[in-house]
Amino acid sequence: xxxxxxxxxxxxxxxxxxxxxxxxxLLGLAVYVNYRWFYQPVQTVDxxxxxxxxxxxxxxxxxNRDYFASADLSRRQSRDQALxxxxxxVDNPAEDTDVxxxxxxxxxIAADMENESAIETLVLAKGFDKCVAVINGDKAAVIVNxxxxxxxxxxxxxxxxxxxxxxxxxxxxxxxxxK
Length: 179
Fold this sequence. Notes:
mainly alpha; Helix Hairpins; three-stranded mixed sheet; elongated
């Protein structure tokens, strides 16, 4: 009797269908076990207007602060490395080294550093929060923390005038970057 039931059941349902049902059940069991072991509920967050704008403003301010600090640090490190190389060339001159040319490069870098510092100080005195100036030969780049609406033409003219008066770089060669 057992064999008759078994053969009738298998002939009606089919061996293939039983395997499919078993695989679906095992897959469901695996999903359930995965859910129970690894599920961590997310905390509810209040996305009210004031919280959102305050957190965005804080994140934006932190990014600007980090940008200006990293730009200043990067500029200082590259200048320090250049000065070390030039100073090493002066201290240990090779036969083909032009010591007077190397000393002229050192004094030019020192003058650029002084001009950059003066430009940054004067731009900050004009009411900007942050400023980084980079002089490279007869060109200059000034990065300022600008308001959302951007710089006014008078502010751009003020920055260009400061760069011209401090470093002698023409306004056509001054790049002003709003951050």
